[in-house]
Amino acid sequence: MAGCNVQSPELNNVIDIQGLKKSYFLGNLEVPILHGIDLCIKKGEFVAIMGPSGSGKSTLMNMIGCLDRPTGGKVMLMGRDTNAITDNELAELRGFEIGFVFQNFSLIPRLSAYENVLLPTYSNTKDGMDTSGRARDLLKLVGLDDRTGHKPAELSGGQRQRVAIARSLINDPSLILADEPTGNLDSKTSVEIMDIFSDLHKKGRTIVMITHDPEMEQYVDRVVHIRDGNIGNN
Amino acid sequence: MLSLKHSFRMAVGSISSSKLRSALTTLGIVIGVAAVIANVSLGASFNQYFTEEIGSVGNNFIIIQGKTSNLFHDSEMEVIKNTPGIVGVSPLSQEVAEVTYLSTARQITVQGVSEDYEQVGNIQMESGTFINDKDKYVAVIGHDVAYDKFDRKISDKNTIELSFTRPDGTVVTQKFKVKGIVDSPETTFVQSGIEPDDRIFIPIEAMNEIMDQDYYWGYFAAATSLESIDDITDELDKRLARDLGVSSRDLDNEDAKPYALTNQGEILEQVNQLSDALGSLLTSVALISLIVGSIGIMNIMLVTVTERTGEIGIMKSLGFKNHEVLLLFMVESIVVGLFGGVLGIMLGVVGAYAADTAMGLPYVFPVDMIFTGMFVSVIVGLLAGIYPANKAARMNPVDALRHE
């Protein structure tokens, strides 16, 4: 088993995955999806996880995002072993350390853009953070300061994804986890969204992006290929 | 930690995003709570009405009624008078007489009483004064007798002629001077021998002399208070039984005694039993409605949870804990219930007011029932929400997200 070779004391390793296995069970039948994956992602990296559908990349993303628990091996996030913490602590870890951006934007339709950005803070708030001020700043950052009161249905696809990106940043997470963030967007809008990610990367954000689109390679530092539940050439 | 304020706002947002559905869902609660409120309010109105009615025919009265004619005499009067807790007693006798005034004749019930009857029977005089024990051929007449029965109104100082028929068939006619008119009490509740409106009261000595008899039909007594009236009645029963030679074994056997006792408390109780029976009928209707309403909320909450599976996945990925998702849906369910409860309370209060007004009952505003109604609707919403909210809270985030 080998994840990150050096256990950095400054928590340079945002993600440290060692021998990760994940199987699903159909009755008693075990269906292995991930066969012992090792992966290390350091602070400030912009990594794309690429693979065809059925390769296990979504399962891997669920593992990194602490949405599901491994069958074997371990996932270390910011130095914390996710196997060793309770479901509530896991939820808290998601709330504070991970910012999700989904393919289909995943906004709550009844809430305005501003409220959607603020939503994660209803559950987890960092001490002393001016959440409403930060929500406005983030909407400004993604260029939506004139759309704060709009509901998702009143926004274009690109605008919705910008709201989702602003939401992912509200608790200043250690990791942005984007699952096919441009999958539902046209190419022009896709470029705009990727420009935002590049920008965030330049400001030092750690970003992991799941994609099957080879064109995305140009934006990232590193591509991790996954095929049949195994990591290919890094 | 998810605050109640935020969960409440999200619940209201969710409910108002499907207004018609939420409104229809609350219907069961609305009807249930309205029925409870209206029921209790009407029940209170009825009780107050009956209590006032019965109170107007006497103060804490006990009616002693002989089963045979030649039973009660002056000695029983003394027994009753000397029973502790009895504050007044009047003998009673009753005959139907032909009453003639200015050439009009009417059949009217005439009541032989003593001066104590004024207090015992809660008699209010409209004009003149009530009979006293020195009077002989004087009459006090009821309101209807004075104003409605005859072609011409009778007023005090007028003279009326009463013709009694003795058991042997002889008719005795005697002139009576009207001494006073009894004010009409606001009663429609009739206990035979009590209601003064269409009666004539004369001194019982005069009646017994005319009828050539020396016994009384019964007595009308007053006790010190309604709370102790049952104890006083029991004591009275014991003393009368001893006086009349009824063995103490037969004290509880109503058929063995030559007399019967009824008191105001018992009559009130009978009336209350009646309104309680009506009340429990309405309450069961309300309960069924509330159960149906609760199932309705549960059903709609299950639909909501299923519809929002994807959103639940999003919230969980954003860091919401299971119990926070639970809280969100519980609050939503409770808000739906409470909304129905508030509508139900308004409907119930207005309904009870309308019914009271229509039936001429005193309106009793059930303040405590409003809190009960709120409480019940919250409980209904809470119970209805448990299963759906729990279902939402326990969703696996990965499966829930896949639903999107």
Overview in brief:
With 234 residues, chain A is α/β, with parallel strands linked by helices. Chain A has helices at residues 57-64, 87-97, 113-123, 131-141, 157-168, 187-202; strands at 13-26, 29-42, 46-50, 72-77, 80-81, 98-101, 175-179, 207-211, 222-227, 230-231. Chain A starts with 12 loop residues before the first strand and ends with a strand.
Task: Tell me the layout of helices and strands.
The complex is a heterodimer of chains A (234) and B (404).
Chain A: E1 13-26, E2 29-42, E3 46-50, H1 57-64, E4 72-77, E5 80-81, H2 87-97, E6 98-101, H3 113-123, H4 131-141, H5 157-168, E7 175-179, H6 187-202, E8 207-211, E9 222-227, E10 230-231
Parallel strand pairs in A: 3-8, 3-9, 6-7, 7-8
Antiparallel strand pairs in A: 1-2, 1-4, 4-5, 9-10
Chain B: H1 4-16, H2 19-55, E1 61-66, H3 74-81, E2 86-101, E3 104-113, H4 117-120, E4 125-128, E5 138-141, H5 143-149, E6 159-165, E7 171-182, E8 199-203, H6 204-211, E9 218-223, H7 229-243, E10 259-263, H8 264-307, H9 309-317, H10 322-359, H11 367-393, H12 397-402
Parallel strand pairs in B: 3-8, 5-7
Antiparallel strand pairs in B: 1-9, 1-10, 2-3, 2-6, 2-9, 4-7, 5-8, 6-7
Structure, explained:
The complex is a heterodimer of chains A (234) and B (404). Chain A is built from six helices and ten strands, in the order βββαββαβαααβαβββ. With 234 residues, chain A is an alpha/beta fold. Chain A has one domain: P-loop containing nucleotide triphosphate hydrolases (Rossmann fold). In chain A, the strands form two sheets. Chain A has a six-stranded mixed beta sheet, with helices on both faces. The model of chain A has no long low-confidence stretch (mean pLDDT 90). Chain B is α+β, with helices and mostly antiparallel strands. Chain B folds into two domains: 175 residues, no CATH class; 122 residues, Cathepsin D, subunit A, domain 1. Chain B contains twelve helices and ten strands. A six-stranded mixed β-barrel of chain B has the order 2-3-8-5-7-6. In chain B, a hairpin with a 5-residue loop joins β6 and β7. The chains are: A alpha/beta (234), B alpha+beta (404). At the A-B interface, α2 and α3 of A face α1, α9, α10 and α12 of B.
